[in-house]
Amino acid sequence: MAHPVYMTREFYGLPAPPGTALPTPAELLELCTKRHPRGWNVGLAYPPEAPIFWIKYPHVIWNELVAQNMAHEGLKRLQSPVRAPAVYYACEMEFGRSIDSFAVMEFVPGKIAAERLQDAEDSKSKDATYSLIALALPELHRIPVPPGSRPAAVNGGRIRHICFDMQEAPHHYRTVAQLEDLLNQFLVMARREDRIKDLTREPLVFCYSDIWLGNFIIDDSRITIIDFSEASILPSSFSKHAVAWRESQIRCNISHLVVIPTTNGVDNTSALREATSAMAMRSG
User: Fold this and answer.
1) How deeply is 38 buried, as exposed, middle or buried, from its count of CB atoms within 10 A (0-12, 13-18, 19+)?
2) pLDDT, tens digit, for every residue of 7-62?
3) Which domains does the chain have, with CATH numbers?
4) Mean pLDDT, to the nearest integer, of 95-112?
5) Is there a contact between 177 and 200 (Cβ–Cβ < 8 Å)?
6) Which residues of 118-136 are buried (b: 16+ CB within 10 A; e: fewer)?
7) Is the pTM of this model over 0.90?
8) Residue 195 Rama label (left phi>0; alpha psi -120 to 50; beta)
9) Separation between Cα atoms, residue 206 and residue 74, nearest integer Å
């Protein structure tokens, strides 16, 4: 016997394109039956014959929805050459012992950066792909941060960043100074020599830390950033650290190409690297 289905929460994002109809929750359940053998998220282009929407399921992190729409709107207002897909709708449903979530967003044509690099015939073509990624990341830093923002995920939840175990901070932080104090306490306990210093002097930026080759879609010479689950409002050293830390993921050092706002005489990248390494060892 089929289990009853309960809607546990919904997200209403940006308006869908005129003349289109979003799939209903019932249609999402009927459409999204394919599962990854390792339990990872799956994507579905819909409708299949002429896609308008991209449906992501079954594990949507709610911060992604808010952060991606902030990026979509912010980049659009800046008239940036870089894009982020609009998110139109999301929901979470419980049936039996399972809870699945679904996000309906804008379909973006093109190839992910990993495919572009695989198809590249020479180093010049590869360099062009990495240059587009290096162009895209600083564009996010141009998005204005609301006045009075505290260090947090874009949706106001706990910080989501690769610096932390499971990409999520263990606490909420009221201020940047409190974040600095608690990170330094951890560095002391981990017996690391580096310390965070003058974090409050750094500019707060829209920090995107899930930097890997599957999160950039390239269509001709236009690049779109996807998957904003690990996006937060943070001091700029967190962005510098994310770019450097993900070098092995993207198989190229682009740190020298990515322009990140800084404060003269302040750079906490090394201390954040030490904190990330210590957290990884502790969780392992």
Assistant:
1) exposed
2) 999 999 999 999 999 999 999 999 999 999 998 999 999 999 999 999 999 999 99
3) 5-106 (3.30.200), 111-281 (3.90.1200)
4) 94
5) yes
6) eeeeeeeebeebbebbbbb
7) yes
8) beta
9) 10
